[in-house]
Amino acid sequence: MSSDSTHARRRETVAAEMRRQGGGVMLLPAAEERIRNADNEYPFRQDSDHLWLTGFDEPQGCALLFAGDGSAPARLVMFVRPRDREKEIWNGFRAGVEGAVAEYGAAEAFPVAELEQRLPGLLDGAGTVWFRLGHDPAWDGRVAAALRDLRSRVRTGVQVPTALLDPGRVLHEQRLVKGPEELALLRKAAAITAEAHLAAMRDGLAGRREYQVQAEIEYAFRRRGGSGPGYGTIVAAGAHSCVLHYRAGDAVLKDGDVCLVDAGAEVQGYTADVTRTFPVSGSFGKAQRALYEVVLSAEKRGIEAVRPGVTVDGLHDQVVRWLTEGLVGLGLLPGSVDERIADKGYRKYYMHRTSHFLGLDVHDAGDYYPGRRSRALAPGMVVTVEPGLYVAADDEGAPPELRGVGVRIEDDVLVTEAGGENLTEAIPKEPGDVENACVR
Ligand code: GLY
Ligand code: MN
Ligand code: MN
């Protein structure tokens, strides 16, 4: 991906906001390649902030965005891996310093090897450095060394920056509200994810193993041009459905069990995040279906409730009420709905939150409590709605046919002026539709 007018526009917006907050320079490290073992690396994934601001998808180095002021325009400086014929034969193309300028909009670019020597000079006079301290100790050390170097030369007239700010307070506010290019990628991720979930329902019959269903899902992701899953694919058969962060393992799917699939395709860095729960036999048992209907109803009402002004906590509290009504109705919780909400008794079955932001990261950037108050949704934000109920396998108070049954239903919802648009609507979730998708 090369940088284009989209990234240039983002940088203008960020620089303008930086100027409003004191100006200076924003330093965004690129991700490093990580060794898996010996000289073999994990698949590379660019740092999301860096990718959002530059579109540059190579490891190492950093981007420096100078906010500019009345007399100087905003300016991008990049440190990148230089062109290297030998290394490119082994590991692939590099844009190099020439490409950083020609393709990615940098005013100047330097080889990574010059970073330590040049960084003090670049920070000299910046006033404010926007840098995420505590994210990567190596970068903390580099920035600290540059500041130390400037301080040691203060009598020569250098201007040591006096403020350190978190880039997130500008960048993450921007990332929270998706632009048209971002929504196009999320829609593509949603379409691919739809195909993958249908494949999972079709293929997830008795005798299959979780990893085989995972393979169907990730085959669909890659075949349609996604880079792969945007987070570890969950295929949870039987009682594994109650393990919130389970990954696809080797358990056998069995008739009578449910299979919970939480999987989303990543497309140019943007991920979908969708959960469906289907019956391995192709038909929900009576008790399973009753539990499923409670979750589905809360999920649909939750999506209906998405609109500008509703807070993330407000949405969660409503979903908690609907789920608790269902739990009391099913006899899984004693007493009244208000009592079980007040004493948080519902947490025995619903122990996670309802929504998170979605975008480049599955748990996307953005402050959930600006000014310590729950964030109000606004047009352009994308949130998940993902209620679930999980009946532990050893829950002796629950009917035997529900023990070890976890149900989660999760969709990705774009907040619009009018309310919400469910980007993952196409994936079946009505019990009859799910059963029809489970071709047996
Ligand atoms: N798949 C992670 C989540 O649903 O939040
Ligand atoms: Mn989620
Ligand atoms: Mn999920």
Overview in brief:
This protein is α+β, with helices and mostly antiparallel strands. The chain has 2 domains: 5-175, Creatine Amidinohydrolase, Chain A, domain 1 (3-Layer(aba) Sandwich), CATH 3.40.350.10; 177-437, Creatine Amidinohydrolase, CATH 3.90.230.
Written overview of the protein:
The protein is of the alpha+beta class. The chain has two domains: 171 residues, Creatinase/prolidase N-terminal domain (Creatine Amidinohydrolase, Chain A, domain 1, 3-Layer(aba) Sandwich), CATH 3.40.350; 261 residues, Creatine Amidinohydrolase. Helix content is 37%, strand content 17%. The protein has 13 helices and 19 strands. The strands form six sheets. It has a six-stranded mixed β-sheet with strand order 6-5-4-1-7-8. The chain has a three-stranded antiparallel β-sheet with strand order 9-12-13. It has a three-stranded antiparallel β-sheet with strand order 10-11-14. It is elongated and about 80 Å long. One manganese (II) ion binds next to loops.
Q: Estimate nothing, just give the exact number of structural domains.
A: 2
Category by helix and strand content: alpha+beta
User: What's the CATH H-level superfamily name of the largest domain?
Assistant: Creatinase/methionine aminopeptidase superfamily
The general outline is elongated
Strand content: 15-25%
**CATH fold topology of the largest domain:** Creatine Amidinohydrolase
What spatial order of strands do you see in the largest sheet? 6-5-4-1-7-8
